[in-house]
Design brief:
There is one protein chain. The protein is mostly helical. The chain is built from 19 helices and three strands. A three-stranded antiparallel β-sheet has the order 1-2-3. Helix 1 packs across helix 16 (346-363) and helix 16 packs across helix 19. It is globular and about 65 Å long. Mean pLDDT is 93; it is low at 1-11 and 16-21. Its EC number is 3.2.1.4.
Length: 478
């Protein structure tokens, strides 16, 4: 394990612990805004309670190769391709956060919106799973999409669909979607039993597809390799098995997960956790499910490494790579909050998480969440929000405009600063101002975790105050 063995590491740890008594941010508002970002990314027929006034129905005729209805789901980023791999990864992490921190969402009156956000994705995945061994993993062609800058409601380009099947399998895509649907099924168990059962049925079928027909999804869906390459599928298969065990408590899935954990050598310490690297997530989930030292030590190694050793910016932000700087940091601290919840280095990891999230919300010099705080990004790299209200035209002139985006993309987490805390709020600088589905997932779930800790502390204080009053009353009576 990694430990603080020198003065620098002790200073780092002290700064994280002091963050617990530093300024407080409105996590309630952050959760509300992040959920609005997901609503702004919706594709298909929007619900009657749509809260994004500058969005309307779009891509309602998305179809599979045999005419299957593939409307719905989420646009991936500032463009209008629907990438199933990252959408599924996003959904798994959001559902995990909902399962872990339900009280936080209920406290801020966002539970219904939270349910709607993951149901929107799950219903789309069920549409895409057109038969036991066929799953549509992408709608839209990125090369065609990149030639268009405007509103999704105004798209007129071809939107081809791409799938995996027996002849062109994608164990990573099928496995991740299985995990997502398992997690969603648990969220809806007591809310909508029929929908929960449907999600779990598809999760089991997709897991069977993933294990029986092996392959990388981008070998079947060629366009995905350039943007969301998958380098392995062993982590997704293990991830899927672990989530199925969590959802069903059927021992065969835990047996599968533990076998594949060894087969694919997942016990080694990874450096990151994101859509292409699930190993740390597998370690955290198996630690929760089994409490075995093999897994608890693995996730502690991961968190300790990131707390004490991993590169950080001068202001203390975890730095993995420039693309999605803030997403990487948020994903890691979400996992470390999960570790803290099962009793691993709880005080240290929670302070670490607060430090990183509060950097994102303003401690780093500005807010990196659109619409939150006094100094937030004004030009996120996002086509639809760069457009004026309809019916005004929107094209590449909007992209080149030096003005702030006319529509506020509330809740979107931008890619973030570089390794020296430098940041450029420019639309064309996508390396700083890109927004994506997966950027917000671990971030939102970590914020929910911090909100739940605040709620727990508040309840504890109220209980102590009440006990103090009772003791005082008893003394007076005596």
């Amino acid at each position: 394990m990694w430990y603080a063995t020198n003065m620098m590491n002790r200073v780092i740890l002290a700064s994280f612990l002091l963050a617990g008594v530093a300024r407080c941010y409105d996590y309630d508002e952050v959760l509300r805004l992040s959920l609005m970002f997901y609503e702004a990314q919706r594709s298909g027929h929007l619900p009657v309670n749509n809260r994004i006034p500058w969005r309307a129905d779009s891509a309602t005729t998305d179809k599979g190769q045999n005419g299957e209805d593939l409307s719905g789901g989420y646009y991936d980023a500032g463009d209008f391709v629907k990438f199933g791999f990252t959408m599924a990864s996003t959904t798994t992490i959001l559902a995990w956060g909902y399962l872990s921190y339900k009280d936080a969402y209920e406290e801020v009156n966002e539970w219904e919106n939270a349910l709607g956000s993951i149901r929107w994705a799950a219903e789309y995945f069920i549409k895409c799973h057109v038969s036991d061994y066929e799953f549509y993993g992408q709608v839209g062609d990125f090369s065609l999409d990149q030639g268009f800058w405007g509103r999704p409601e105004d798209m007129n380009m071809s939107r081809p669909s791409y799938k995996i099947d027996k002849n062109r399998p994608g164990s990573d895509l099928a496995g991740e979607t299985s995990a997502a649907l398992s997690a969603v099924s648990m969220v809806f168990t007591k809310i909508d039993s029929n929908f929960s059962a449907s999600c779990l049925s598809h999760a089991k079928q997709l897991y069977m597809f993933a294990t029986q027909y092996r392959g990388l999804y981008h070998d079947a869906i060629k366009g995905a390799a350039q943007y969301y390459e998958s380098t392995d599928y062993g982590d997704e298969l293990t991830w899927a098995a672990a989530w199925l065990y969590k959802a069903t408590k059927e021992s065969q899935y835990l047996d599968d997960a533990e076998y594949m954990y060894m087969k694919y050598r997942l016990k080694e310490r990874p450096n990151e956790f994101y859509y292409n690297k699930k190993v740390a997530g597998v370690q955290a989930l198996l630690a929760e499910l089994t409490n075995q030292s093999e897994y608890t030590e693995a996730i502690q190694n991961f968190c300790d490494y990131n707390l004490y050793v991993q590169k950080k910016t001068p202001k203390g932000l975890l730095y993995i790579e420039k693309s999605g700087t803030l997403c990487h940091a948020a994903n890691i601290v979400f996992l470390c909050l999960q570790a803290a919840d099962i009793g691993i280095m709880s005080a240290q990891y929670r302070a670490f998480a607060k430090y990183q999230i509060d950097y994102i919300l303003g401690d780093g010099g500005q807010s990196y969440v659109v619409g939150f705080g006094k100094n937030y990004p004004l030009q996120p790299h996002h086509a639809a929000s760069s457009c004026l209200d309809r019916p005004a035209p929107c094209d590449w002139e909007a992209y080149r405009s030096p003005k702030p985006n006319p529509q506020v993309l509330y809740g979107a987490l931008v890619s973030g600063p570089d390794e020296n805390d430098n940041y450029k709020d420019l639309r064309e600088e996508y390396i700083y101002n890109e927004v994506t589905l997966d950027y917000n997932a671990g971030f939102q779930s970590a914020v929910a975790g911090l909100k739940q800790l605040e709620l727990r502390a508040s309840r504890h204080k109220a209980m102590m105050d009440a006990n103090g009053l009772q003791l005082s009353s008893n003394a007076t009576d005596a």
